[in-house]
Design goal:
The protein is an alpha/beta fold. It has a single domain, classed as Alpha-Beta Barrel (TIM Barrel). The chain is about 35% helix and about 30% strand. It is built from nine helices and 13 strands. Strand 1 and strand 2 form a beta hairpin.
């Protein structure tokens, strides 16, 4: 199987959703859809490879700020025994809890963590290690609301996560997303220096990239186009 790279390094297949279809976007651009396939059979095919966890991103929810628990439930059902990590539209603790209630094993939250001075601590207190803090990075700053708005600087966000007791970060190099251009190793080395567990995303292609990410300290990596190409799934 292709999912577990080393015992200490996990590879998570990415499933991005628009409507009820699995899609891939280039550099997070909603107008640049690289492919589109029905969600449930696609998730089932990915789950059949035996991953420890699937990374399910509701792009529509992320853009519109609205959790779609029915989409979470569709993905969880199609994944069977494989755990599902969910992102997109989780703008409140109650929405995050609803995603967990719909079957998610853990939730990835970005925009809502920075909604106010106490928001990050509230999420950590309510969700504990089932919370993964999303740091989606473009030009050294966080991108929020489905990557359509700019937020605070990366170093400021990292310091806040450490102070609040976040246990895991999901860090996306947006300019590498959907490009097969290789991971931004400088970014991940910088983030891993925080001492927090880091899952990397954006441009991950192959075993060499996974080895390089492990070498700079990443716990795991999300692979979208690269993994799909290896599995022969990108064309359906």
């Amino acid at each position: 199987m292709l999912i577990c790279y080393f015992a200490a390094m996990q590879l998570l297949p990415a499933v991005d959703v628009l409507g009820t279809d699995a899609v891939r976007l280039e550099r997070g651009d909603y107008d640049r859809v690289l492919f589109r396939l029905p969600l449930e059979p696609f998730v089932a095919r990915v789950a059949a490879t035996g991953p420890a966890m699937i990374h399910l991103v509701d792009l529509e929810g992320a853009r519109d700020g609205r959790l779609r628990p029915e989409v979470v439930a569709l993905g969880v059902r199609a994944a069977g025994a494989v755990a599902v990590q969910v992102s997109g539209g989780l703008r409140s603790v109650s929405a995050a809890r609803a995603a967990l209630a719909a079957g998610a094993a853990r939730v990835v939250v970005g925009t809502a963590l920075w909604a106010g001075p106490g928001a990050l601590a509230e999420f950590v207190g309510a969700l504990g290690d089932r919370l993964v803090a999303a740091l989606d990075v473009r030009d050294g700053r966080l991108a929020l609301r489905g990557w359509t708005a700019s937020g605070l600087g990366l170093d400021q966000a990292l310091a806040a996560c450490v102070e609040a007791g976040v246990s895991r970060l999901h860090v996306t190099a947006i300019e590498r997303d959907g490009t097969l251009g290789g991971p931004d190793l400088d970014l991940y080395e910088r983030v891993c220096a925080s001492g927090l567990a880091v899952v990397a995303a954006g441009g991950v292609r192959d075993d060499r990239d996974l080895a390089a990410l492990e070498a700079v300290g990443c716990e795991g990596a999300v692979m979208g186009m690269g993994l799909l190409a290896r599995l022969g799934l990108e064309g359906g």
